[in-house]
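Q: Sequence in, structure out?
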Amino acid sequence: MSEVNTDLSLAVLIDADNIPYANIKGMLDEITKFGIPSIKRIYGDWTKPTVSGWKPALLEHAITPIQQYSYTTGKNATDSAMIIDAMDILHREKIDGFCIVSSDSDFTRLATRLRESSKLVIGIGEKKTPKPFIVACDKFIYIEIISKLRNSNQESGTINSISTSAKKSVVEYDSIDNGLINLIKSTIDDLADDTEWAFLARVGGLLNKKKPDFDPRNYGFIKLTPMIKSLDSEFEIEERDVENKSIKHVYVRIKK
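A: Exactly. Output:
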């Protein structure tokens, strides 16, 4: 993924009805990669025992609970409350972006509307999240990946590499299929210079725009570079020195 401005002010809105509370720390850690969570609110009917597990996490992470009673069976009043609050924040607060934590497709139009107002929209939800909501976001992160990283940290004490046979025996990752390889190739073609090399950071950024839920961690790799290196039958990698700096720029091209 291309570099982002981590000083952005973000509003984090969490749907307590269909998001598990176990990975709240991991979710907030992900959000801080994109900006500062200036507003943190969670919505639910706190009189119900089904959301009681959230209560300790609210105190620990300074998340403001918003009470929303279920007026009618079968109707999700929580969704409506989140949408109303999001629009109020959009027009009244100095916010650069929103993080909508939910697996509900009801937030598709909200995400689209916020992006129309030039706001960054990050979605976090389970893999069961309907595609329309995923593609309506600038970036979508699966909770299952956050959970895998948390489990890997507990087992190994590091996240330098999650692509090992030992960890793959514990968790299952998505397979890299021909569709993804063709998407990477077309993205490289879009950005390649006259020598057919493309700056990998820009490739990652464009991949996220084309496929908001693209994440190397879905496939067992902590970063894009090792993922591309693993596909050495399809791509070539070149690391170039940067003048007066200790870092290297990574370039990629399609192998002939």
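The two ends are 25 Å apart (CA to CA).
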